[in-house]
Design a protein that fits this description.
The complex is a heterodimer. Chain A is α/β, with parallel strands linked by helices. Chain A is built from ten helices and ten strands. In chain A, the strands form two sheets. Chain A has a six-stranded mixed β-sheet with strand order 6-7-8-3-9-10, sandwiched between helices. Chain A has a four-stranded antiparallel β-sheet with strand order 2-1-4-5, covered by helices on one side. In chain A, helix 3 runs parallel beside helix 6. Helices cover 10% and strands 57% of the residues of chain B. Chain B is mainly beta. Classes of the chains: A alpha/beta, B mainly beta. At the A-B interface, helix 2 and helix 3 of A face helix 2 and helix 3 of B.
């Protein structure tokens, strides 16, 4: 469903993404991992349409979407959960979820949705998306705003960041549910072992390159073994750049 | 009552063919309908245009509607309305003004309201302003509000200027005695060449009085808005004012907050933020399928809600 062909991104002439190619099958859960600053978020933003690649192509369901903006990609079924969620003065949680759903959600739907990210609808649906919400709360609402879209491809950028253990467990459950039902394709940027453990495939991105990619059963043991030796799991790859 | 007046009332006062409560409807400088209730009396002033609204002590959960409409140019409506709220009463007052002009002459409403809240009284004051019509004549609304709050009284002002008002100067003054509270939520949208000036002066003269003034504004086109506020703490008290403004096109906003603490335990805070819509906000809503234009409208509508 998603084919990334030799994309590169060099804002202001500085290379951030170099010649990345990926193939993502429908209904799979792909976890993109790698060191900080390696290009994971940049890759996700290129897929979502927030940035445009300086070269290469992005094919989604057989259509070349490289030149489409974020709105057009969203309409075609790509959803993106921001790593740093945005706050809005005046918009409520319910406003955001209704906008994301494309309809006015009823109480039961809102409740089910927020419950999936560990929040109580009665407490939160009328809250303003402003600074009164903690980082963890706004993060969970951001995730809910993507889950409600039931998009063909949902991209989550470090969904675990800033949320508590209990909410994280709920999130893993939600990912597992989507995966089991094959109701959508998940592309998750994460460093969390519990998320890596439920991936179908793992892609390791470092220094703007794909360093490794393949089935979780193959990639994860190598990553964990390197971690247990307390050194950078990508160190050996760095030398190949 | 003219059809146009009833249409304006729907917008400014949620009019559905009737009002449930006491009311006095003003049209082009004249009273066209009035009703009192057992607990709320409305009488005309004898020395100048306007009303005296008397709410009996202890009155609970009742409504008073005093909207004013101007339906054509060459009207300069000046009205003095005084509201006397008895001790312990808890009422909602819905004012609001609609100014319409399809001609070249100026249409103006200037409402001078004074509120006298007795001890422990509580008032929710809602005021919505709108200008309509294709006339080139200036559509002006210049409200003046003076509020005097006795001990433990609370005045909550919820004011909004939606669109179409070419020029407005809003002046609000309040004097708060012990434990009295003033809460203001003001929202103003200006477009084209419109101007809006708001000026708040709040004196907290009683211990533990508090004031919270929040103004949100959107200045589009070549419009200009200014926000002036002075909060004076003359005893132990707390005050907060906040001015948030979104700029679009060539809009301009001038925020001039002032705080005066004349007592060691006067805690006063001001916050101000002026700027365009954040790019991340647009991107978030676009990622949900909205176009950039739809995203901007949604952000502004929410901001002014």
């Amino acid at each position: 469903m998603l084919e990334i062909q030799n994309i590169a991104w060099s804002p202001e002439g500085e290379g951030v993404i170099h010649d990345i190619s990926l193939h993502v099958d429908s209904g799979k859960m792909i976890v993109v991992t790698g060191p900080n600053g390696g290009g994971k978020t940049s890759l996700a933003k290129l897929i979502a349409g927030i940035n445009r690649p300086t070269s290469g192509k992005i094919i989604f369901n057989g259509e070349d979407i490289t030149e489409l903006d974020i709105t057009e990609r969203a309409k075609r079924g790509i959803a993106y959960a921001f790593q740093q969620p945005v706050r809005f003065k005046g918009l409520s949680v319910q406003d955001l979820l209704d906008t994301a759903a494309g309809k006015a959600l009823n109480v039961q739907e809102t409740c089910k949705l927020l419950e999936a990210v560990g929040l109580c609808a009665n407490e939160y649906k009328d809250r303003e998306l402003n600074a009164s919400l903690s980082g963890g709360e706004i993060k969970r609402i951001e995730i809910a705003s993507v889950l409600v879209r039931e998009a063909q491809l949902s991209i989550f950028d470090e969904p675990e960041a800033g949320i508590d253990l209990w909410s994280f467990s709920k999130l893993v459950e939600a990912f597992n549910e989507i995966r089991k039902r094959k109701s959508g394709t998940l592309l998750v940027i994460s460093h969390q072992e519990r998320i890596l453990e439920i991936a179908d495939e793992i892609v390791v991105v470092a220094n703007g390159y794909v360093r490794d990619a393949g089935a979780r059963q193959v990639i994860l043991p190598a990553l964990l073994a390197d971690e247990h030796r307390s050194r950078c799991p990508l160190e050996k790859e760095e030398n190949l750049a | 009552m003219k059809y146009l007046t009833s249409e304006l009332l729907k917008v400014i006062a949620d009019y559905q063919g009737k009002f449930n409560g006491a009311y006095s409807i003003r049209e082009d400088g004249e009273c066209v309908a009035r009703q009192t209730s057992e607990n709320i009396d409305i009488v005309s002033k004898t020395d100048k245009p306007g009303l005296e609204v008397h709410v009996k002590p202890g009155t609970k959960d009742e409504y008073v509607y005093v909207p004013a409409c101007v339906t054509h140019g060459n009207v300069d409506d000046l009205v003095y309305n005084d509201f006397y709220i008895g001790e312990g009463a808890d009422v909602t007052i819905i004012a609001g003004c609609g100014v319409h002009s399809d001609d070249e002459d100026e249409a103006r409403h200037n409402g001078i309201h004074r509120f006298f809240l007795g001890k422990g009284a509580r008032v929710l004051y809602k005021e919505k302003h709108i200008g309509t019509g294709k006339g080139q004549g200036l559509k002006r609304i210049d409200p003046v509000t003076d509020a005097f709050l006795e001990e433990d009284a609370t005045l909550e002002m919820d004011t909004i200027q939606i669109s179409g008002v070419d020029a407005t100067t809003r002046v609000t003054k309040a004097e708060l005695k012990a434990r009295a509270k003033l809460l203001v939520r003001e929202r103003i949208l200006t477009e084209g060449e419109q101007t809006a000036k708001t000026d708040f002066v709040v004196d907290m003269i009683g211990e533990d009085a508090s004031a919270d003034i929040v103004s949100r504004s959107v200045a589009r086109g070549h419009s200009f808005q200014s926000f002036d506020s002075t909060i004076r703490g003359l005893t132990r008290c707390s005050g907060h004012s906040e001015c948030d403004a979104i700029l679009a096109d060539e809009g301009r906003v001038l925020a001039s907050p002032a705080l005066e603490a004349a007592h060691i335990d006067a805690a006063l805070i001001h916050e101000a933020a002026i700027g365009k819509i954040a790019g991340e906000q647009l991107l978030k809503l676009q990622s949900l399928g909205l176009t950039a234009e739809e995203a901007e409208e949604k952000i502004i509508a929410g901001f002014l809600k």
